[in-house]
């Protein structure tokens, strides 16, 4: 598995001022974020990163996170590593356990200028509805977007 993780990083370049859609997954797809407190830990971690990114939208699904951000400075890789590290410590405390919370690596997509950010955010926010978790996005607690 280690080879796959390094293959994901190969050629990765973070560009300040660029907008990225980032996705990262819990270890073994464990549905940790059915616990609202654990989801709020991830949100607090995102807020903590505010000097390095502007959060445009996010949705925290039971076993993964989608985060639409504009990178201000630093590298996306370092930012995600920091978020995962901080949130894992807090979540492990909450669950009274130790060990891995997150899968290694993450997926990122640099948004091109012609892509419609509000459509991407709308698609993200509708994930809980498409997954059958709620009937309306308004019923789901772990999302936000700057356009709302």
UniProtKB/TrEMBL annotation:
<protein>
    <submittedName>
        <fullName>Transposase</fullName>
    </submittedName>
</protein>
<dbReference type="InterPro" id="IPR052715">
    <property type="entry name" value="RAYT_transposase"/>
</dbReference>
<dbReference type="Pfam" id="PF01797">
    <property type="entry name" value="Y1_Tnp"/>
</dbReference>
<dbReference type="InterPro" id="IPR002686">
    <property type="entry name" value="Transposase_17"/>
</dbReference>
<dbReference type="InterPro" id="IPR036515">
    <property type="entry name" value="Transposase_17_sf"/>
</dbReference>
<feature type="domain" description="Transposase IS200-like">
    <location>
        <begin position="15"/>
        <end position="127"/>
    </location>
</feature>
